[in-house]
Specification:
The model has no long low-confidence stretch (mean pLDDT 95). The protein has a domain of 215 residues: Nucleotidyltransferase, domain 5 (2-Layer Sandwich), CATH 3.30.420.40. With 502 residues, it is of the alpha+beta class. The protein is 34% helix and 22% strand. The protein has a seven-stranded mixed sheet. Strands 3-2-1-5-14-13 form a six-stranded mixed sheet, with helices on both faces. It contains 16 helices and 23 strands. Helix 13 links the parallel strand 21 and strand 22. Bound molecules: adenosine-5'-diphosphate.
């Protein structure tokens, strides 16, 4: 049988999915299982690692059954995953010693605050890892497990435990405990990895009191990660690609070159810009992270590539708020009709700083506003202003990325639930002054893992071949002139000033 399919396992925060791709990079079918969120205390978020595995295997089995594909037709697997979520298990029994601590979990926030009070610590972390010191990343979660789970520290010191992010846990389980590895994109989110030297960092391991023996081997995102060894489910399939979800989406959008960027419009927005071989240090509070790269053409280790990353906290969540709290709409799709039913917002701006303002403003005490109201303002104007705020917030981040990196974004690739909104995409192109490209396949996260695996397995020969396969469904070009763009951006920034805490 010809090995003509690639499967991506997409282990996300709320679901585990398996996505089947054919040799043209087209999605053939998707199977999905929901994943339970466990909230033991306010602010704490956990998952059951066994359930992460069983839902992932369940989705994979369902995909094979539904499509009638023989495992012998599958050339390779790729894995993409929710990032930073931390799991520790016993090497002997392969049993997790406690639940996975989720990326959103805030239990270690007081610890991180205390830790970074010491002079030079925050700067050292930033310098080595490219991250803003925070409880979000794996390091403090791992330390918490070692300090709070009975017997954990002793077992760790005796080398009996293994640590991993979700990719590492799945690799371990899929290969029957043969492989304890991660890829460099996931490693770059642990806050224990020096993104410049490309290795676990002794000083950081010491700072967080983590024995080095816990850490997985770090491999390039596209290459060998072992072979599946799950009798009854899948045996003998090579695993050839691994990347954290956002880096996977950047790769899946074919943003292979410096200056190429993508934006995922979901509950929040996730923006990444490829900066090539340069780890750009941000002056705007953005994160510097490792990007997934294609295998090098001469078979050697590829040169590390980097990206700048930022996020909009409230994006699709604002649309949900319009629907659930204000009851302006019944369905998110109605926002497009409302926005297009009026010529402009009549000067209304919505700044959804529900939980403060993120990069590049960093004002946690700011709160949301709707401003510019007159008696002529109707519901449709406010809805239009709300959609515009998604684009304005994204613009602020993209401009910060351009400023920090000295590069110009030529085109923005888009995906995520809200990218179907044509008004929003056109407005984004207008405010950015560059093309906004919505691909035919908006399953970018899964596509990235499939592309990384397929490149290593020889299904595709080069990134250029992938670019050919990755076709745009619609390209939105700017339709306004520069002076009007500058005027609108200036008005938005006046609205931002009005909602700031000081
Ligand atoms: P997530 O993965 O973060 O849960 P999705 O990528 O599934 O999010 O996108 C869902 C979000 O997109 C929701 O917040 C929803 O309000 C928003 N959304 C969905 N469709 C539209 C639309 N047509 N216009 C604007 N927003 C939309």
């Amino acid at each position: 049988m010809t090995k003509r399919f690639v499967i991506a396992l997409d282990q996300g925060t709320t679901s585990s999915r398996a996505v089947l791709f054919d040799g043209n990079g087209k999605v053939v079918d998707i199977a999905s299982r929901p994943l339970r969120q466990i909230y033991p205390q306010p602010g704490w978020v956990e998952h059951d690692p066994i359930e992460i595995l069983s839902t992932q295997l369940g989705a994979l089995t369902e995909l094979l059954v539904a499509t009638g594909i023989e495992p012998a037709e599958v050339a390779c697997l790729g894995i993409t995953n929710q990032r930073e979520t931390t799991i520790v298990w016993d090497r002997e029994t392969s049993q997790p010693i406690t639940n996975a601590i989720g990326w959103q979990c805030r239990r270690t926030a007081p610890f991180m605050e205390e830790l970074t009070k010491a002079s030079g610590v925050a700067e050292m972390i930033r310098e080595k890892t490219g991250l803003v010191p925070d409880a979000y990343f794996s390091a403090s979660k791992l330390r918490w497990i070692l300090d709070n789970i009975e017997g954990a520290r002793e077992a760790a010191e005796e080398g009996r435990l293994a640590f991993g992010t979700v990719d590492t846990w799945l690799l371990w389980a899929l290969t029957g405990g043969e492989v304890h590895a991660t890829d460099s994109t996931n490693a770059s989110r642990t806050m224990l990895y020096d993104i410049h030297r490309g290795c676990w960092d002794e000083e950081l391991l010491e700072l967080f009191d983590i024995p080095a023996s816990l850490c997985p081997e770090v491999r390039p995102s596209s290459g060998s990660f072992g072979t599946t060894n799950r009798p009854g489910v899948l045996t003998g399939i090579p695993i050839c690609g691994v990347a954290g979800d956002q880096q996977s989406a950047l790769f899946g959008q074919c943003c292979f070159s410096s200056g190429e960027a993508k934006n995922t419009y979901g509950t929040g927005c996730f923006l990444l810009m490829n900066t090539g071989n340069e780890a750009v240090r941000s002056e705007s509070g953005l994160i510097t992270t490792i990007a997934a790269s294609a295998p090098s053409s001469n078979g050697g280790t590829p040169k590390t590539e980097y990206a700048l990353e930022g996020s909009v906290f409230v994006a699709g969540a604002l649309i949900q708020w319009l629907r659930d709290q204000l009851e302006f709409i019944e369905d998110a799709a109605e926002t497009e009709i409302h926005a297009q039913s009026v010529d402009d917002t009549l000067g209304v701006y919505v700044v959804p700083a529900f939980t403060g303002l993120g990069a590049p403003w960093w004002d946690p005490d700011a709160r949301g506003i709707i401003c510019g109201l007159t008696s002529a303002v109707q519901k449709s104007h406010i809805i239009r202003a709300a959609l515009e705020s998604l684009a304005f917030q994204s613009c602020d981040l993209l401009h910060a990325m351009e400023h920090d990196s000295g590069r110009t974004i030529e085109a923005l690739s888009v995906d995520g639930g809200a990218c179907v909104n044509n008004f929003l995409m056109q407005f984004q192109a207008d405010m950015l002054g560059c093309a906004v490209v919505r691909p035919e396949n908006v399953e970018s996260t899964a596509a990235g893992a499939a592309y990384l695996a397929g490149l290593a397995a020889g299904i595709w020969n080069s990134p250029d071949e992938l670019r050919e396969l990755h076709r745009p469904e619609h390209t939105f070009l700017p339709e306004i002139d520069e002076s009007f763009r500058q005027e609108r951006l200036a008005q938005w920034h006046r609205a931002i000033q009005r909602c700031r805490s000081n």
